[in-house]
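Following up on my earlier thread - several people asked me to post the actual chain instead of describing it. Fair enough. Here it is, all 135 residues.
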Amino acid sequence: MTDIIDAKVFQGCGVASKNIKFQLPHLVWQFPEIKDIFPGSINVQLDEPLQNLKYDYTTLPTPWWDVDLQNPGHWAVETFSFRRVGLECPMGGPVYCAWIFGCHNSQWFSDPLRHEIIAEKIAAISYGARCRIHI
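Reply from S.P.:
Thanks for posting it. Predicted structure:
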């Protein structure tokens, strides 16, 4: 059985689009399934909370080079988790293979409404777009 939760794409602070290219080689080594993703994330605010999220895979603590502008140029160590989902964006459009990208050091990691999604490049994504997450 698949659960479908409607959501809205929102603009994040850009940390993933700066850092994921440094994280990807380490993440793909541990979880090759994501090798073809776009090096950025899609921030979604769900219409209803996703409770008791069960991840498909969680990495070992992973070092990566953090280029965050508030604390530039330092090594960080973080654990990441992935949950396979379908991303329908825009609503009524195709369903893309995607993953909820749980960054354990993120302020949103324990938030049942806000999630980061990684997927291939999806041209139709825009801030404010309505989408569906197929879990």
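The chain is about 10% helix and 40% strand. That should answer part of your original question.
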